[in-house]
Amino acid sequence: MAYRDLHAFLDKLEELGELHRVRVEVDPVLEIAEITDRMCKSPHGGKALLFERVTGSAFPVVTNIFGSYRRICAALEIGELEALARRMEELFRQVPSTSPRDKIAALPQWGEFSRFLPKRVTYGVCREIIDHDPDLGAYPVLTNWPGDGRPVHSGRFITLPLVFTRDPETGAFNCGMYRVAVFDGRTVGLHWSAKSGGAGHYEKYRARGERMPLAIAVGGDPAVIYAASVPFPAPIDEMQMAGFLRQSPVEVVQCLNSELWVPANAEMVLEGYLEPGEMRREGAFGNHTGFYGMHEDVPVMHITCITRRREMVYPATVVGPPPMEDCYMAKANERLLLPFIRLELPEVVDINLPLEGIFHGCAVVAIKKEGPGHARKVMDALWGKGWLAASRLLVIVDADVDIHDLPVTSWRVINGVEWRRDLIVGESPFDKAFAAQGSRYSGGRLGIDATRKMPGEGFTGEWPEEVSMADSIKQLVDRRWREYGLSEE
Ligand SMILES: Cc1cc2nc3c(=O)[nH]c(=O)nc-3n(C[C@H](O)[C@H](O)[C@H](O)COP(=O)(O)O)c2cc1C
User: Do 198 and 295 have their domain in common?
Assistant: First the structure.
């Protein structure tokens, strides 16, 4: 059954032995981040951490709620992440449309999926307390790394925000997770990438010279928090997808000062507006690549009110050198978004985003190769559009490679590639997350075609046979294993 809210999820984590309560007082400036970082890097992602007493604030903080396979699965109420791929594939199988684009376009209105459209309600616990004279200083917003904000602002960032905006032309809603820099008690900065839904809406308001209403929810049930961070293709609505993931529509309540709708069970909601064209410098920020991101001019939100639950818990994440909590969110994305890719490219058998690649930074892709040049066609298609378009490293291997076994995959790639023939170095759009890109306007990307080469692919003769033992000998050794006295070793 779907979690009622974040509190219900934390109860579940406690029941599973996946939550640790820190009862002594801790500082939201760096100390919580250091404790969380150590926990993220301990075996199997450690535990979620509930900091009950936080210096300077009346509210507890919870971190690392998604930071292990067990917890992300608990968050999405599944036994294993593969269930996400199976459910999406099953859904697509049922949608009666022929082209991939039509299927995705038809999804929101399609019977089974349309049951999960957000449900509008008139009241939510996110409004138990209404503060029309808000001060963000009262809330335990973390500073994660010593260089955060330096030298421009305090370095406090809301790191698990659900940013709600609306298209002024179509009326369509968007929810995205973009870090929020706290400038002072009433103003924050929004770090959304140019291709994000929020930035698209903002551009339209800016062109019209109109104020843009905006709401930032923090907390809610875990499927809602997670869905805000997934790059679903248009026109899929994050809240509808969250409803599908939790198998129950997300209840949303209208903001007090705008036509935006936010999850009724959120812990906290910041309402406000952006003035067209008003920008302010934010950063630096210790990013999930493990490097500090550059300073940037970002749109400024003026907060008009903050509403919250009476017993509010403030959720946050710490990103930095992997593995961190968001690596497990990336692994969930990998499973959930694979079926979208397979709609267009059914020859893609599987995808692995290694944790060190930071979401889409690196993708290992197994394909059923059907002819010469096929791997390159797949690369072109993946880089052409969609979720992996900004991938910096694509490695294509044959379908028989177990791409989730990275040592085996590395062995196949390192030993099976002719570097002069099988590498494709190309131009990619600039991605500010990657510190080593010198230019602000473009970056490079690398494709490795590690598939077995066929005639017509610059390889003559027979592809070398792989070394492996004869089946008859393997069976013999299986039968005699105990005789060798090795069974206990
Ligand atoms: C913890 C976390 C932080 C993120 N921070 C940002 C960010 O600051 N800016 C951004 O553009 N995307 C960020 N993302 C990725 C977006 O949430 C993701 O691309 C999402 O799909 C954006 O929603 P949209 O496609 O509706 O714009 C972050 C993701 C996670 C998990």
Answer: yes
Last residue of a domain, one of 316, 333, 356: 316
What is the per-residue pLDDT across 100-143, written as a single tens digit (0 to 9) for each? 888 999 999 998 899 999 999 999 999 999 999 999 999 999 99
**83-116: burial string, b at 16+ Cβ within 10 Å, e else:** ebbebbeebbeebeeeebeebbbebeebeebeeb
The reported pLDDT for the residue numbered 405 is 97
Q: Is the pLDDT of residue 163 over 90?
A: yes
* Of 204 and 463, more confident: 204
Closest ligand 1 atom, CA of 238? Answer: 26
Distance of CA 20 from the midpoint of ligand 1 (Å): 27
Tell which of 316, 336, 364 closes a domain. Answer: 316
Sign (positive/negative) of CA torsion 38, 41, 45, 46?
negative
Ligand 1 atom with minimal separation from the 317 CA:
1
For residue 474, pLDDT beyond 80: yes
Rounded percentage of the chain residues whose pLDDT exceeds 70: 97
How many folded domains does the chain comprise?
Answer: 2
Q: Which atom of ligand 1 is nearest to the CA of 193?
A: 11
Distance in angstroms (rounded) separating the CA atoms of residues 394 and 392: 7
CATH, residue 268: 2.30.110.10
- Together in a domain, 366 and 292: no
Ligand 1 surroundings by CB, under 6 angstroms: 159, 174, 176-179, 191-193, 196-198, 229-231, 317, 319, 326, 329
Q: At what angle do helices 82-94 and 238-246 cross, to 10 degrees?
A: 110
Write the pLDDT tens digit of every residue in 441-464: 677 899 999 999 998 898 888 888
The separation between the first and the last C-alpha atoms of the chain, rounded to the nearest angstrom, is 44
CA 293 and chain centroid, separation:
18
Quick one: 283 and 369 in the same domain?
no
Coil, strand or helix: which one is 366? strand
> Model confidence over 420-431: pLDDT tens digits?
999 999 887 767
Q: What is the pLDDT of residues 277-289, one digit of tens each?
A: 999 999 899 999 9
Q: Assess whether 381 and 255 both reside in one domain.
A: no
Cα of 177 vs centre of ligand 1, distance in Å, is: 4
The whole domain housing 167 covers 93-316
Cα 78 to averaged position of ligand 1 atoms, centre (Å): 23
